Description:
Blueprint: E1 4-8, E2 14-19, H1 21-35, E3 42-43, H2 44-51, H3 55-67, E4 71-73, E5 79-82, H4 91-98
Antiparallel strand pairs: 1-2, 3-5, 4-5
Helix pairs in contact: 1-3
Amino acid sequence: MFSSGLYFDQSQEVLAIKLSTKGEYGVRAMLYLALKYGVGPISLEEISEEERISHQYLGQLFVKLRKSRLVKSTRGGKRWILSRSTALPDYPYRYPQSC
């Protein structure tokens, strides 16, 4: 379901991260929410328009992100915010396993 890989140099610093399309879209959506943090809940329509990602595809991704407790939906499930748990230091490593 998710294809990723970390590439290191000789000093063990990460040079690149290989992401599947699903992983890339998930990261882009999460980054968009992070940039809008504090503004309030954001709709999938807004993310879809700004990031040029299919609304239907985002809906499927956000179900998985919600189950992984990376995002929370507002009442009615039409708008989304980052979960407080994303502030944990292991966040970048938790995302790939969620998709």
